[in-house]
């Protein structure tokens, strides 16, 4: 409970509400300004805080770090839309700004990458940037990082 949770690329996900407003030090839902504006209209803040920013901007990381508490980052269906170089840069920045943060994220398995064109939604996104999610975690990403389960990484 004595931690800060940040849901990145929150969209209209009601994770905080579904969990019954968990007793954490702070809960932030972060997304781009137009998404947060819609979110505020449809799902007003209820003990959580909304951040209007790109996950690539360091300002939100600095705000979270000021709490001086352990940090849990949640990313569902987010990283697959960016290319490997962007994701690596983001992990490096994150390691600098929020060392020791625990990150829970999803990835497409290699078999899923190979079949992306058969997926009804991904097929329609063919012209979008990296819509097939062609990257994977490797041991060479950053010294000191470790994948602790298939679902999280500690940096």
Helix and strand layout, with pairings?
Blueprint: E1 4-8, H1 15-18, E2 26-31, H2 33-42, E3 49-52, H3 59-65, E4 71-75, H4 84-97, E5 102-105, H5 110-114, H6 120-124, E6 146-149, E7 152-154
Parallel strand pairs: 1-2, 1-4, 2-3, 4-5
Antiparallel strand pairs: 5-7, 6-7
Overview of the molecule:
The protein is an alpha/beta fold. 29% of the residues lie in helices and 20% in strands. The chain is built from 6 helices and 7 strands, in the order E-H-E-H-E-H-E-H-E-H-H-E-E. It has helices spanning 15-18, 33-42, 59-65, 84-97, 110-114, 120-124; strands spanning 4-8, 26-31, 49-52, 71-75, 102-105, 146-149, 152-154. Strands 3-2-1-4-5-7-6 form a 7-stranded mixed β-sheet, sandwiched between helices. 22% of the residues are buried. Mean pLDDT is 81; it is low at 150-155.
Structural class: alpha/beta
Rg over alpha carbons: 16 Å
Give the helix level as a range of percent: 25-40%
Helical stretch tally? 6
Order of helices and strands: EHEHEHEHEHHEE
Mean pLDDT: 81
Question: What is the number of strand segments?
Answer: 7
| Widest β-sheet, arrangement of strands | 3-2-1-4-5-7-6
Strand content: 15-25%
**Main sheet attributes: strand count, strand direction, barrel closure:** 7 strands, mixed
Uncertain residue segments:
150-155
The termini sit apart by: 20 Å
How does the overall form come out from the CA principal axes?
globular
């Amino acid at each position: 409970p004595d931690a800060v949770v940040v849901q990145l690329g929150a969209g209209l996900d009601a994770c905080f509400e579904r969990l019954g407003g968990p007793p954490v030090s702070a809960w932030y839902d972060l997304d781009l300004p137009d998404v947060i504006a819609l979110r505020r209209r449809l799902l007003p803040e209820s003990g959580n805080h909304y951040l209007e920013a790109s996950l690539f901007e360091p300002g939100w990381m600095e705000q979270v770090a000021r709490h001086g508490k352990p940090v849990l980052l949640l990313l569902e269906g987010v990283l697959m839309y960016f290319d490997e170089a962007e994701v690596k840069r983001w992990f490096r920045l994150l390691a600098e700004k929020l060392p020791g943060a625990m990150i829970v994220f999803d990835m497409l398995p290699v078999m899923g990458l190979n079949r992306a064109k058969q997926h009804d939604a991904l097929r329609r996104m063919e012209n979008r940037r990296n819509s097939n999610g062609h990257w994977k975690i490797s041991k060479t990403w950053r010294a000191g990082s470790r994948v602790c389960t298939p679902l999280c990484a500690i940096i």
